[in-house]
Amino acid sequence: MRLEGERVYLRPIELSDADGVYPSWLNDPEVCRYNSHGDTLYTKEMAQSYIKSVIDNPSMVVFAICLREDGRHVGNIALQQISLKNRNAELAVLIGDFSVYGRGMGYESGKLLVDYAFSTLKLHRLYCGTHSENIGMQKLALKLGMSEEGRRREALWKNGIFADIVEYGLINTVSEKETL
Q1: Which CATH superfamily is domain 3-179 in?
Q2: Cα–chain center distance at 142
Q3: pTM for this structure?
């Protein structure tokens, strides 16, 4: 399966991605500045183990974000904690390649994933949480149509301090009208 956008495409993450640049992103302090990664060395073997754990896992869908122009793998985007019973999932995105920062790749990828979640998986709700200082992710969540739903105070230990996590959610109102 491949989700096509104007400048990016999403493809399922593959074991061979562990041989590329992907593991190095989780060792980069700037890439991991606002997420829960980066505290320990992330190895190729750890990446392989993670990829194996998500392949055919019904509670996760992880896509590689690739540029259409050259196929370069620049990030990952995922639906995590998929609950078919409750018809919801957590959206997570990681852009690891600094050369595409600020070029809208996260937004284009996010739009493709939201459409997949609502149209293909028939989910009712998506949600995400981000470090209170991660303004880029907060703007992305809002641009994807999410609403701020709350704040988990001092829920993330990062760089020697506790940080709040700002929570966002998006309800699929279109499919509800179709299925009712």
Answers
A1: Gcn5-related N-acetyltransferase (GNAT) (3.40.630.30)
A2: 15
A3: 0.91
